[in-house]
Structure formats: structure tokens, C-alpha cells
Amino acid sequence: MLTIHVADRAAFTGRRDADAVAVDGGLIVAAGPYERLAGERPQARVRRWPGLLLPGLRHPQAVPLLERAYHPDPREADELGMEPLTGDALEALAMDDTRWGASARRGLQRLLAQGVTALAGPFTVPAVRTAVARSGLRVREARRGRYEGDALALDPAVHFPLNALLDGDLSAGGAADFAVFDVPVGEQPARALRLGGAATCVATVLGGRLVYRRR
Fold first, then answer.
1. Per-residue pLDDT for 206 more than 70?
2. Cross-strand pairs, 55
3. What angle do CA 192, 193, 194 make, to 5 degrees?
4. How many domains does the chain have?
5. Are residues 187 and 174 in the same domain?
């Protein structure tokens, strides 16, 4: 379905006046001012979001987050908390393929809630690899000289600059993979994301599908 997503500002579109993207069939078909896009496509459904519309993020720490950390089930929160468990805490768990797969699925949902649409791979744990494939998230090769954070973080903006996170741009003809962050808009989207963090994500779109929406 032809859909126009409009926010307070859309960055990395190639246009300084953009606040919207038009999506059809999993692709971005246009980017620019909402008034122009809507005028040219009066039949389009419109989704409105607060804040900054950006290309989806690529998480550089996806492999350790999914293959070397356990994401507790909410039913385990009283015992294990909700943060990813690593090191001795992970070693104390009886991990098998079933548990690794369930952990990966929860971790992937949590990454979608951070505006992540792509993961630096490859993945070697079979249950994790299957969960990633079924999620639809893009798997990219890890970049050479990638930045290393001191600790794992679901929010990639904690350790990594925006230019290391963006998975493409919002140009016409590209995949409709993007996210919207409820942060103040301005001329410095990198600073806005750094200050607000990726946890300000209100919507994630992957292949034109709305896969996360803050309720």
C-alpha cells in the first residue's frame, strides 16, 4: 500500500527541506516536503510521527548481543532482571538451542525498538541464525576498523557515532528501511540522536512494513 510517513524532519534524503518519505512495495518512491508528496499522491495513506526520521540503524555489536548474551523472558525478570546477561551470569544458565533461539527472538524485538534494521554479522549459532533470518532484518558484513564499545548495549548510539550506524539513506528507489526518533529536530541529527539515544525510537519500518511502534 502506498504510504507517506511524515515527521518533523527527515534527514539523509538528499533534500534539506524534507520531512516525509513515500513508500510503495517495500521501496522509497519519493522523499521531500510532505505537502508536495501528498499533493502528488492524494490516495496515499498517511502516518504521522513526532521527531526525526532517519535511515534504519545497523548495530555493530549484533553478534555478541545475540550469540554471547542472554535476553531474559519478562517472566524471568524477578530472578534475572531484563538486561542482557553475559559472562558468569550467562555461564550459570543451562543454555540449549531452544533457549538460544528464544533469547535471540527477544533480543531482535528489543533491537527493533531501537530503530535497528540491519545487523553486522555473520551469525554462527544455528538457533540465532534462524531467528535472524526469520526476523527479516538485514545482515551486513562487519565493517573494517569498526568502533568498539566498552560494554554491550542494545542502544547502538551509546558507543557508536551516527555515521557508523546508518544503513543507507532515504533516496528514491532504496529499500524502505527507516526509523523515527522522538528527539528535537535541527541541523545536527547526529547530536540529537546522541543526546536522546536510540531508545527514543517511536517507529521502525523494515521493507515498508511497520515492525515496531511505541504504544
1. yes
2. 178
3. 95
4. 2
5. yes
Q: Count Cβ neighbours within 10 Å for each residue of 10-20 and write b for 16 or more, e otherwise.
A: bbbbeeeebbb
Mean pLDDT of the chain: 94
Q: What is the pLDDT of residues 66-121, one digit of tens each?
A: 999 999 999 999 999 999 999 999 999 999 999 999 999 999 999 999 999 999 99
3-state secondary structure of 179: strand
Q: Do residue 173 and residue 201 come from a single domain?
A: yes
Q: ω into residue 122 within 30 of 0, thus cis?
A: yes
Cell numbers at 8, concatenated: 518533523
Strand order in the sheet with 45-48: 27-32, 20-24, 3-6, 45-48
Same domain, 12 and 25: yes
Give dist(CA 92, CA 89) in Å, integer: 5
Whether residue 99 sits in one domain with residue 34: no
What is the model's pLDDT at position 121?
96
Could you read off the pLDDT of 119-163 as tens digits, one per residue?
999 999 999 999 999 999 999 998 765 555 558 999 999 999 998
Decide: pTM greater than 0.85. Answer: yes
Q: Is the dihedral of CA 210, 3, 16, 206 positive or negative?
A: positive
Query: What type of residue is 137?
Result: L
Q: What are the backbone dihedrals phi and psi of residue 140, each rounded to the nearest 5 degrees, phi first? A: -115, 160
Of 12, 39, 8, 34, the C-alpha closest to 21 is 34
